[in-house]
Each structure stands twice: as C-alpha cells, then as structure tokens.
Amino acid sequence: MSRSFASILAGAALSCALLASLPASADTLLVDRTKQATGASVPSRGMSMADVEARFGVPSERLDPRGGQKRQWPTINRWVYPTFTVYFERNRVIDTVANRATASEIGPKPAIR
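The structure assignment produced for this chain is given below.
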C-alpha cells in the first residue's frame, strides 16, 4: 500500500469517526407524521364533492379551479380543511394530502395562486 493511499484512508476513517460522534438532529417530515396518525379520517378516492361536504363539513377555503382548457385537461378543484387538502377531478376525489402542522415541518410546497 502506498504512503499517500494510507494517509487518505486514515483521513477518511478520522472523518467518519468525527461524524459519528456528533449529535444527530432531524426535521419532522410530513410523511412521518401522517404515518403516525393512523385512523385519521380523510376523504377517500372516488367520493363526490357532496359526500365530502356532508361528512367533513364546509371547507375553510375553496381554491380556484385549475385546468379544463382542453378536453384532455380535466378541471381540478382543491378544498382546504384544517388538517388536509382534498383534490377533485371534476367532482370526484382523486387525492387527499395532509397539511403541514408547523412551519418547521417539511412537506408539500404551498399552492400556486
């Protein structure tokens, strides 16, 4: 083994040892929080707008619809509730996304308005 390779290897081992001794810190990921919240009641795929409103109440905000300029681009509506946002294609649920709980939580970017 050459002297330069041995010094590189020793430097790498020292770097790994230093990194391992540092305290770990992490952000709360939105995915982790939603996995912990089992049993959370959210609209399921295929529910109609009327079903969602009857079961979960009036949304706190109804965002402007997007799309619909062409037949192959269906209109997408978004309803915001305190803990989740519901996405509709025409009048049926296609997805439900959990909202961020705190500003430090890493999650979806805010809606483009």
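Interim note for the steering committee: The longest strand covers residues 92-98. The chain has a mean pLDDT of 78.
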